[in-house]
């Protein structure tokens, strides 16, 4: 019996398609393995960065646990901050973000699941009309009872199968996004989720899972994502919401090919094996039949989606080469099968390469090889912490694994990346493991640091450092990180390692930035939970300024009624520096303009990385600022440290020159820390102090940072609580209030009330929703002869207009119609227009019953109560064009020409002619009679 190496598939060569170099085989110089590189094109053909069309189905958990308060970050030494937002509030906001970036070529479906699942919307093209309808369905979701995760996944996949025959996907990227808190407790499959999904055969779409909060069954979510060819993402709190969803959708929109898989045919004696540990989708090698000469084996590796500009690098290890000889000429054949997304009628395509293993040759540099080998070893180590159970579900240990740090140190000793610490990729991988080095690589201090795992500050080391860390977030975070490295996708802004994936893809960067901007533009969700009673120091605690771990005011719990903008979770915020200054971020490699700094981003401080908690922006005009260090523009009295060990000084004393500046200046508040040195950031190569540094008492001549207000963390939080915020998440400050005796700044002054009034209008609209905020008013003529040809909105409809439209005068005010009994109708035209206006309003009016079980004749039928609504009647029923009148304008060309000789003389002559007309006629008659008498 023989087995075909490649199944019979419809193959089609495409002009201008990818070259055969899509797949490369690199035998390693160490002769112990090989590296398979699948390199998609950098951007779509044609040079147009068009996002791949997507068919997305959102499977949203609406169980009772989703109504719990959304968790906020908790860091050592800080207070717990609580919001009045539920987990479902944040999930719905993420769904709105996804909806915001879709267009007519994309389709979206929605499934909710609690004790049973419900299809809210089949796959629909995201036209403007369908988007408005989808948004209403998202807003109507409310938490109910139990969690039937299986029915949500099953019905979500069925939406793709239902439309396969009726509407072809047309090369679109199909994905099911499961959004849940990961605690299924109803109708779970007895044989397990993975066997149940495998029994369904080839899945119509990839499955991506998102787990919210710390009470997760993260192993199940990761297993579902692996069997579905997707990614699992851990969202511990509100601070990670935006970045995770932005990257997830950006990866889908930058997809080059779907359903990709790699087939390897090689001599059986090689004993090829994957090096990334246990995974649900992992397949064992198959030895080909006796009819195939030389005893060959075939290994299939499922790749799922491939992204533009991002390679997939697979490190395989083989154990024995003793049978390899020049006579046997051993070769390996690598074949990649995939469906391109840019093809309107996708057909399975393949590309293959043959490589001899006898003489290893590679074009890869040693640092690149070391990176990919180290990445595979790290994935295998993380996978060992969540082994597979008999139901093919990852099972993280319920307690901290014993002696986790020594094995982590042993792993570091085996990573080839440690030999290339200056390589950017290797450095990013080590940064997630150990944290930043205290000294340059190769120094004794760095060697001592690497030999002491207890000093490591990387996220992986912190996740395994203590039982509390591992039990709360490490067991959920590590599988998510391992999955990002395994599929080589960027899943957030947080981790330095995955952040490198997709950086060379212009399409991915464009999609990510577009999603990021959409997330920031959306208004914040209205909290579903009632506000708790304010604790002591209410002004400070109501500010909610400890969103990323700060705001610990005397041990009180900081609470926030509602964030002013969702930009607190994802978007730029900024502090007494000019907006053009650049801040050094965690890791010391990347910088960001202070005007684009993001809440929750970790920045470099003299005591290690710290998170940004809050920011203040103050507009200035023509103020004097100091140029320090060649590029930093800062206010004269903001303490800086130009050189380590040189002490703190005012910029006016160390400036290069003074500059007149008009624009905005920014101040930053970091998470609370008792060490004053932890309250400084590196901006433009110069250390600058931040708000709330803790130095309130002392000799200002010894330390210029001492300040009664700026040094008191509690006072700063209390003052910021009184300031308004704009949609971008910035705290707006107008100026500083000062003590008149000493002229010392002691408070932030409020800016103008324009933003506050806008927020009040928004709050009013949300409070009366779905009712409009205004009433229907008639169209009337403006008063006076000069303006009566124009129209405007009047005070109210007359009783005659209401009677003609069939609306009782006492009923009209209850349905949003203004009534003015004093006004009278003076024309039939005006009466007819307002009657028609009332009738049109009645056709679009939705009247809900006062009692759900007692529907009256005047109420709108239930099947029509889900129509599109509006918050402004005036925007829908605008003032029409001017009513036709009996007057007509005279065009300029029809005006008479200028009077010859002047108007004055013409008027005098006309007056004289009129006065003397009778006299002149009498003279003519007398003259005629005299002539007749002579005859």
Automatic annotation (TrEMBL):
Q: Per the record, where are the segments of Basic and acidic residues compositional bias?
A: 910-935
Entries under SMART domains matching the protein: VWA
* Chain ranges of the VWFA domain: 55-249
Source domain of life is Eukaryota
GO CC aspect terms: cytosolic large ribosomal subunit
GO BP field: translation
Pfam families reported in the protein's UniProt record: Ribosomal_L13e (PF01294), VWA_2 (PF13519), Vwaint (PF14624)
Keyword line: Ribonucleoprotein, Ribosomal protein
> SUPFAM superfamilies in the record, alphabetically?
Hedgehog/intein (Hint) domain, vWA-like
Q: Which GO terms describe its molecular function?
A: RNA binding; structural constituent of ribosome
Q: Where is this region: Disordered?
A: 908-935
Query: Is Ribosomal protein there in the keyword field?
Result: yes
Q: Which family does it belong to?
A: Belongs to the eukaryotic ribosomal protein eL13 family.
Name of the protein in question: 60S ribosomal protein L13
Q: What is the lineage of its organism?
A: Eukaryota, Fungi, Dikarya, Ascomycota, Pezizomycotina
């Amino acid at each position: 019996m023989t087995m075909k190496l490649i199944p019979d598939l419809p193959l089609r060569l495409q002009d201008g398609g990818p070259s055969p170099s899509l797949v490369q085989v690199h035998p390693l110089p160490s002769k112990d393995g090989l590296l398979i590189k699948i390199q998609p094109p950098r951007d779509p053909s044609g040079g147009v960065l068009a996002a791949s069309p997507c068919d997305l189905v959102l499977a949203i958990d609406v169980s009772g646990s989703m109504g719990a308060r959304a968790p906020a970050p908790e860091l050592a030494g800080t207070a717990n901050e609580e919001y009045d937002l539920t987990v479902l509030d944040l999930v719905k906001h993420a769904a709105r973000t996804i909806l915001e970036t879709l267009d007519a070529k994309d389709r979206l479906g929605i499934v909710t699941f609690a004790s049973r699942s419900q299809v809210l919307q089949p796959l629909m093209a995201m036209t403007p009309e369908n988007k408005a309808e989808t948004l209403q369905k998202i807003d109507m979701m409310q938490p109910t009872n139990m969690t039937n995760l299986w029915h949500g996944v099953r019905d979500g996949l069925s939406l793709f199968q239902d439309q396969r025959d009726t509407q072809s996907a047309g090369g679109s990227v199909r994905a099911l996004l499961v959004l849940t808190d990961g605690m299924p407790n109803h109708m779970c499959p007895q044989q397990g989720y993975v066997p149940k999904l495998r029994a369904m055969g080839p899945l119509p779409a990839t499955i991506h899972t998102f787990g919210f909060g710390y009470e997760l069954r993260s192993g199940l979510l990761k297993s579902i994502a692996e069997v579905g060819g997707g990614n699992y993402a851990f969202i511990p709190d509100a601070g990670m919401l935006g970045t995770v969803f932005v990257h997830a959708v950006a990866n889908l929109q930058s997809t080059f090919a779907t359903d990709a898989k790699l087939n390897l045919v090689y001599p059986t004696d090689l004993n090829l094996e994957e090096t990334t540990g246990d995974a649900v989708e992992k397949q064992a090698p198959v030895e080909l039949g006796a009819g195939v000469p030389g005893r060959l084996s075939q290994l299939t590796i499922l790749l799922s989606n491939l992204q533009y500009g991002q390679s997939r690098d697979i490190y395989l290890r083989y154990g024995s080469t003793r049978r390899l000889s020049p006579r046997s000429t051993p070769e390996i054949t690598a074949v990649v099968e995939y469906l391109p997304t840019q093809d309107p009628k996708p057909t399975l395509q393949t590309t293959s390469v043959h490589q001899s293993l006898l003489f290893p040759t590679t074009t890869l540099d040693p640092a690149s090889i070391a990176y990919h080998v180290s990445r595979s070893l790290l994935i295998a180590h993380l996978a060992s912490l969540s082994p597979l159970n008999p139901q093919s579900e990852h099972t993280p240990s319920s307690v901290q694994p014993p002696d986790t740090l020594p094995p982590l140190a042993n792993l570091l000793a085996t990573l080839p990346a440690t030999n290339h610490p200056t390589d950017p990729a290797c450095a990013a991988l080590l940064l997630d493991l150990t944290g930043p080095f205290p000294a340059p690589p190769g120094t004794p201090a760095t060697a001592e640091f690497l030999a002491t795992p207890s000093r490591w500050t990387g996220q992986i080391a912190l996740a395994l450092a203590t039982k509390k860390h591992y039990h709360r977030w490490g067991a959920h975070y590590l599988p998510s990180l391992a999955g990002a490295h395994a599929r080589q996708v960027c899943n957030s802004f947080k981790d330095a390692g995955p952040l490198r994936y997709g950086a060379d893809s212009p399409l991915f960067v464009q999609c990510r930035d577009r999603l990021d901007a959409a997330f920031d533009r959306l208004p914040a969700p209205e909290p579903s939970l009632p506000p708790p009673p304010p604790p002591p120091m209410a002004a400070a605690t109501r500010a909610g300024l400890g969103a990323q771990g700060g705001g610990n005011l005397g041990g009180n719990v900081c609470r926030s009624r509602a964030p002013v903008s969702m930009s607190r979770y994802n978007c730029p915020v900024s502090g007494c520096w000019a907006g053009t200054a650049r801040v050094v971020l965690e890791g010391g490699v990347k910088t960001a303009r202070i005007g684009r700094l993001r809440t929750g981003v970790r920045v470099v401080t003299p005591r290690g990385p710290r998170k940004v908690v809050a920011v203040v922006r103050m507009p200035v005009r023509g103020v004097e600022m100091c140029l320090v260090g060649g590029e930093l523009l800062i206010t004269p009295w903001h303490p800086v440290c130009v050189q380590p060990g040189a002490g703190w000084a005012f910029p006016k004393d160390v400036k290069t020159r003074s500059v007149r500046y008009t624009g905005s200046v920014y101040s930053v508040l970091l998470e609370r820390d008792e060490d004053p040195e932890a309250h400084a950031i590196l901006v433009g190569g110069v250390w600058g102090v931040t708000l709330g540094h803790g130095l309130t008492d002392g000799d200002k001549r010894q330390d210029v940072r001492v300040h009664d207000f700026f040094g008191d963390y509690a006072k700063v939080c209390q003052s910021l609580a009184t300031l308004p915020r704009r949609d971008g998440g910035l705290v707006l400050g107008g100026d500083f209030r000062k003590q008149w005796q000493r002229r010392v700044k002691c408070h932030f002054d409020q800016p103008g009330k324009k933003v506050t009034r806008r927020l009040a209008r928004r709050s009013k609209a949300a409070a009366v929703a779905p009712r409009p905020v205004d009433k229907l008013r008639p169209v009337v003529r403006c008063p006076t002869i000069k303006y009566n040809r124009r129209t405007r909105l009047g005070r109210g409809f007359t009783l005659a207009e209401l009677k003609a439209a069939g609306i009782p005068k006492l009923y009209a005010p209850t349905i949003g119609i203004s009534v003015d009994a004093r006004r009278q109708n003076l024309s039939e035209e005006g009466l007819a227009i307002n009657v028609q206006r009332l009738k049109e309003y009645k056709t679009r009016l939705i009247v809900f019953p006062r009692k759900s079980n007692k529907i009256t004749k005047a109420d709108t039928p239930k099947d029509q109560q889900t129509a599109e609504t509006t918050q402004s009647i005036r925007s829908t029923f605008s003032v029409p064009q001017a009513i036709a009148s009996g007057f007509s304008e005279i065009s300029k060309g029809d005006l008479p020409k200028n009077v010859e000789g002047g108007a004055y003389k013409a008027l005098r002559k006309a007056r004289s002619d009129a006065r003397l007309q009778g006299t002149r006629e009498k003279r003519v008659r007398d003259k005629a009679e005299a002539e007749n008498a002579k005859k």
